[in-house]
Structure prediction request, 231 residues.
Amino acid sequence: MTAVRVLVVDDDFMVARIHGRFVEQTDGFEVVGTARTGAEALELAETLHPDLLLLDVHLPDISGLEVLERLRGRGQDVAVVMVTAERGAAAVRSALHGGALQYLVKPFEYADLADRLRRVAATLTHLSHDPAAEASAEVDQATIDQVFGAGRPATVPAALPKGLSAETAELVLAAARAATEISASEAADAVGLSRVTARRYLEHFVDTGAAEVRLQYGGTGRPERRYRVVG
Prediction:
């Protein structure tokens, strides 16, 4: 199997080196270039034709989200994993709508990135094709389900309790996915909800199997409930 070719985009030289080492440490992946600005990322994406971009949001010229938008605008369907310290719901939403396959919040451990890389590799494998036959290529529903399951670890449960909206549920789920683990208060701040409302969404995800919860003990008082998206 041909290695997945990765372009690392981060304005911090040391961070880019660490992410590059993480990529090279993962079987089936290789780094083909590093960019420190949005303009450089767009240029290298055009010349190197990578399979995957590890893309930071905060770049010195244009944002990573604008890089993503420009890539899609010029027809480049390169896979993108956002790797950033940005936790804002608006950024998560823009990445989601722009077609990013994963959104990973810094700082993180090697295992966190490796997990996302393997999900993307699974997506690319399921959708591998001969460009000459692309126009007539078809995939069945099972393959489509596998692709979307690999690209996005969890989706909003179809049936929501009264008072909960699918749009807000997607934002809460995206915030929880981006943070790896989140409390109701943190989800409320990320999405712009009350803590009680955010907790209703998170508890619903737990009830439907989209998320799991653990109790974090520390100090005095009641333990904090921490939520993690399943998958």
